[in-house]
Design brief:
By secondary structure, the protein is α+β, with helices and mostly antiparallel strands. It folds into three domains: about 120 residues, D-Maltodextrin-Binding Protein, domain 2; about 110 residues, Dipeptide-binding Protein, domain 1 (Alpha-Beta Complex), CATH 3.90.76; about 200 residues, Dipeptide-binding Protein, domain 3 (Roll), CATH 3.10.105. Helices cover about 30% and strands about 20% of the residues. The protein is globular, with a radius of gyration of 25 Å.
């Protein structure tokens, strides 16, 4: 009798333990983001925040870029390239469906790329990627052949960016508000100004690989508020913590995991090259000499960044360290302004979007510019205002981190917001694009960096590190960002 009672007691305890385990096992997560995008179509709008939500989660492309920057198959299961580097043949996955039940096949790839190539397209990669595609053929539902005008050694990487996601013709026009893709998650709720919630899609081709049933992105643009939300347990992770002064606090707290990695970001003070007096290269060079990169990185980013001297990241193959070209030299800055005939004090407007590197960094820059006779009036704006103002060319100076990898081809776009118009640069970039010899491409890549620096198109300041902070037990949060994405398929709780 005593033995039976003990067995029954043990059984009850086991059931209780199992029940408790089931209750505490998490199948959801809440991630914090800085900026809320105005729409969710990465093929028509430039905000990197769009990709943070939809890329790889709702919308997929032919290839996938991993946290380490490696390119692997996604909707294309394999590919081959002709020796001249101009023809790519992609074999597509079979049995893939869109979330509305439409079958995925080669016609969707053709539609998506032709949509990106269209002269009315606002796709960020239109000029650099899609205009270079001379023909798209679909010999069968599972084969796509791309023929390029010029060989592009970066094509497979480019096709893994959010600008190249594949949409279905029937749902493409509604992507900004109701994205429909082939990925493992669907959009279930968007509370404007607050959050976006994605739910696991049961029709995904490999549902067992997806561990979390629900992921919510909360928009918290104040760094202190994000830190407080993490400490209070209201959110589970901040993949890109832009509160560097709090990193040591999280590292010392056993409730959290802190990972520091790299990014493709180029933190710059953008200069409107079309506005006087910034249309004079001597004035732009003066701005560059007026900025103390080390003081900026130490004071704003707690040292969690590297200085840069052109529009490239230190992780880019062929990167040149050009930070010595415009070393911090206030007297040189003053001399250049005088040489350019600029009367000081010069009044300018410095427009700052919400991220801390911009708001706090703008104050540091304004103080540095004041030392050379430039009075920078700070104008703080929200993200939507920045997109409708500075990004449309209505500004003097602004501070922004360009996170897209290898986006230097934007300098060939005379309509881009910084207003750079150089035939010499466009010719150099075109030569680079058509060069097939690897050694010569590396040399030309160096020349591209040097020309952007010589022309002082913008004030190139910092390449930020990435700091990912998550609750202990949450696995799979990216610690590096070769592209801006949050790969939810990698997330799980221990």
């Amino acid at each position: 009798m005593k033995t039976s009672a003990l067995k029954l007691c043990a059984l009850v305890l086991a059931v209780i333990a199992l029940s408790a385990s089931a209750q505490t096992r998490k199948d959801s997560a809440v991630l914090a983001m800085v900026l809320e995008p105005t729409g969710l179509d990465p093929t028509t709008a430039p905000a990197a925040a769009i990709g943070e939500i939809v890329h790889y989660n709702i919308l997929e492309g032919l290839t996938k870029i991993g946290m380490n920057g490696a390119v692997t198959p996604l909707l294309a299961e394999s590919w081959s390239m002709d020796p001249d580097g101009k023809t790519y043949t992609f074999k597509l996955r079979k049995g893939v469906k869109f979330q509305d039940g439409e079958a995925f096949d080669s016609s969707d790839v053709k539609f998506s790329f032709e949509r990106a190539k269209d002269e009315k397209s606002t796709n960020k990669a239109k000029k650099a990627v899609f205009d270079n595609i001379s023909s798209i053929s679909t010999p069968d539902p599972h084969t796509v052949i791309l023929v390029l005008n010029n060989a592009d050694g970066n094509l497979l990487f480019r096709l893994g960016e959010n600008t190249a996601v594949i949409l279905d013709p029937k749902s493409a026009d509604g992507t900004a508000t109701k994205p429909v893709g082939t990925g493992p998650y669907t959009l279930t709720e968007w509370k404007k100004g607050s959050s976006v919630t994605l739910t696991k899609w049961p029709g995904f081709r490999d549902p067992a690989s997806i561990k979390l049933n629900k992921v919510t992105f909360r928009f918290i643009n104040d760094p202190a508020a994000r830190v407080a939300a993490l400490l209070a347990g209201d959110i589970d992770a901040v993949p890109r913590l832009d509160a560097p002064q709090s990193v040591k606090q999280f590292q010392a707290d056993k409730r959290f995991t802190v990972a520091i990695g790299s990014t493709a970001g180029k933190g710059i003070m953008t200069i409107n090259n079309k506005k006087k007096p910034f249309d004079d290269v001597r004035v732009r060079r003066a701005l560059m000499h007026a900025i103390d990169r080390k003081a900026f990185i130490d004071g704003v980013l707690e040292g969690l960044a590297q200085p840069i001297g052109s529009h490239m990241a230190p992780t880019d193959a062929g990167y040149l360290d050009l930070t010595g070209v415009y070393a911090y030299n206030p007297e040189k800055a003053k001399a250049l302004l005088k040489e350019a005939g600029v009367a000081t004090p010069l009044d300018v407007t410095l427009t700052l979007p919400p991220p801390q590197y911009a708001r706090k960094g703008g104050e540091v820059i304004a103080a540095q510019l004041a030392k050379v006779g430039i009075n920078a009036k700070i104008e703080n704006v929200e993200w939507a205002q920045w997109l409708s103002g500075p990004f449309k060319g209505n500004f003097d100076l602004t501070v922004i981190n360009h996170v897209e990898p290898l986006d230097f081809m934007q300098y060939t776009n005379t309509g881009y917001y910084w207003g750079y118009d150089s035939k010499a640069f466009r010719d150099l970039a075109a030569k680079y694009a058509t060069e097939g010899n690897a050694k010569e491409r590396t040399r030309l890549f160096g020349e591209i960096q040097k020309m952007l620096t010589t022309d002082a198109v913008n004030a190139f300041i910092f390449n930020p590190a990435q700091t990912a902070v998550s609750k202990k037990g949450l696995k799979g949060v990216w610690s590096s960002s070769p592209i801006f994405a949050n790969d939810l398929s990698a997330l799980s709780w221990e």
